[in-house]
Write a structure and sequence with these properties.
5 strands; membrane; transmembrane helix; DUF2752; transmembrane
Amino acid sequence: MQASGPTAQTRGRIPGVESYRCRVSLSQSVVLRPAGPVQPLDRRVWGLSAVGVGGFALAGLYQLSGQRIGVPCLLHATTGLNCPLCGSTRMAAALLRGDLDAAWHFNPVILVLGPLLGVALGYQVLAWALESLRLVRLPRLSMSPRAADWLLKGVLVLLAVYGVARNLN
């Protein structure tokens, strides 16, 4: 069973300026019992997935230890200022308890970005695993290096602005 459709889609094209084109492609076919080589996952997907799983493991340890075991922030310890990631462990521990209000209080930016990133990475790992097991080939989203670069820069700017804003009061 195989569905077909457009394999590439161009977004954000500025007429006459070819260098600003952002290409995002999504294969529209789902293949049952795929054969052939399995496309490997990017090392950045594995790295970010490991950081996310490790972060939730640390939050679980923090919660189970009665909030005694955690990773102190060096910026906060030396200057008293909060970095953009300060409160992430407490936020994840609050999520594990089901306390969304406390999680929002500890770090709202990571509370919003974390699940978005987790779903995207989880889907990529799931699609790879199902294909590796030869069960089904799901479509995978791939970004051009230019789009990934702009996305990374945007997230870093957002975190920098949040880091400054949270220390103003």
